[in-house]
């Protein structure tokens, strides 16, 4: 019985490690990133381009945070948007692929709605229950005012290839007026591929086939150009990169 219990624990540990690398489901994320400069960078960006953004002039401002983890950054983003837009009503929906992280977020921040969802399967139309669509319907809107993708798009890209990432971009661009992106570099992609192989003995099967790739921001430029083809214009870019050397870029339709 003891052996069985230890085997189960080891299996759960291995599964969590795989989920961390494969999907970004880091349960200790805020322990190794305690000083998160992104809210301050976001505030600076929004202050500089607020008047250029296609935000609803009255009523509630609706936000979607894709890959919300335990909700700490979501909560900070909510506070920043409220401050920038002079305490107008603001509502945020946070989604994450990891049910346990979503439960933690709900406990920590009871005033924010968090749901478990896989953005890739929603974008591909492969779900019966779509919590993002449900939120839009409940609030009688067809788009969010702002969608945030902080260090999250690498995971659908590695798991579902260029076409899978394009589906996600198509979906989020169709569901928002303003898009806030923080992209991971190609170097980070390569680190993740190495980690999955080293820690789990597995590979991202579509990695070698990726055409959107390359250092010197080649990867990022492919994504930016695709977003711009969807009718979005770049309104702000925080060139003072954060502690992880990633820019925050704001697009508006």
Automatic annotation (TrEMBL):
E.C. number: 2.1.1.-
Keyword Transferase: yes
PROSITE patterns documented for this protein: BIN3_SAM (PS51515)
Residue ranges constituting the Bin3-type SAM domain according to the UniProt record: 1-253
InterPro entries the record matches: Bin3-like, Bin3_C, BIN3_SAM-bd_dom, SAM-dependent_MTases_sf
Enzyme category, top tier: transferase
Keywords: Methyltransferase, S-adenosyl-L-methionine, Transferase
Sample GO molecular function, one term: snRNA binding
GO aspect biological process, one term: methylation
Family matches, as PANTHER family: 7SK SNRNA METHYLPHOSPHATE CAPPING ENZYME, BICOID-INTERACTING PROTEIN RELATED
Family: Belongs to the methyltransferase superfamily.
Name of the featured protein: RNA methyltransferase
Organism of derivation: Culex pipiens (House mosquito)
